[in-house]
Amino acid sequence: MARKMLVIDDDSIVLSSCLRIFEAEHFDVVTTTSPEEGLSLVLDTYFDVILCDWMMPGLDGMEVITRLDETSPGSAVVMISGYPSIERTTEAMKRGAMDYVAKPFTPDEISKAVNEAIQRKEAEELEIIEKFGRLTKTGQISLPSIDEKILQTLSAAIDERRRMEARPSLEALSEPERLQEITLAVLDKYDKDTNNLIPILQAIHSYAGYLSYETIGMIARELDMSEHDIFGTASFYTQFRFQKPGKHRISGCAGTACFVSGGGVILEAIKSKLSIMPGETTEDGVFSLERVACLGCCALAPVVTIDDEVYGKMRPAKLSRTIDKIYRSEPKG
Ligand code: FES
After folding, report:
1. For the chain, which end, N or C, has fewer CB atoms within 10 Å of the first or last residue's CB respectively?
2. Measuring CA to CA, which residue among 14, 70, 81, 110 is closest to residue 278?
3. Residue boundaries of the structural domains of the chain
4. Architecture of the 4-132 domain
5. 274 CB-contact burial (10 Å; exposed 0-12 / middle 13-18 / buried 19+)
6. Is the pTM of this model over 0.85?
7. Which residues, given as ranges, of the chain have pLDDT below 50?
8. Residues with CB under 6 A from ligand 1
């Protein structure tokens, strides 16, 4: 399969040169003169490599690199600039760029930089794969689901402890108390062993529904690890949410069939209607949004699910009406 490349530069000559050079190398090249459009394209498409100019109207290249590192961490980013300097090169690398190429560049120079950047990025990913397991093309890892029996044992252990100590049931606790109780029970079950970090995170997530920052802090204290390391590990996995899920869970499909049928527009419509990003929950706790890979009903693309209901052939107006309808059915006050 052809590698995908995104070129963000306000100079049309650079765009056409990159198109010519890299299409000849069998890359699938997408170009844009707008940094904002570039950032929005990476939300819907995985690019193996991204070339980004340093000086552009609107967002500057350093800001774009920082945002790309957050939204498309698996892409190899190469910065290009007409005004290179050691300080800028160092800054670009610190923010996640793999290389820095000065304009005007020759086809050989840019081609060498791009191909070496991809190789280095792939080597980095391999290291991560060895450390954490199988990495998917989205840069995140899928975990097998946790054994239902483990959850049942945990649940029984928590209930029993609370009954013996004559304490109220989990349901009667405040959210922080509930999370603390679950976290301590899971840590006990796994002997507070750092080698069990992934099963610990999975069990807490399955039980509590999410990993709160307080939960991560508690795990860090109990396992004598840094919060940064625990969050870094958890954030590699698609399954983990870090905010309490809303009462209704909306899943916007970002699979190929949905994407080509306007799935990106639908996701944007959900984001702007509810003012949340994927992985977030509305302030009133009614909706949470997640961006998922194929939901398995591509013939209905673009597809959105809300809780267990599938909504096919989705359009922004239909989506807005559906969300309004759910809001109207919510208890007032
Ligand atoms: S790609 Fe969306 S349902 Fe298959």
Report:
1. C
2. 70
3. 4-132, 148-234, 248-329
4. 3-Layer(aba) Sandwich (3.40)
5. buried
6. no
7. 129, 131-142
8. 253, 255-258, 294-298, 301, 303
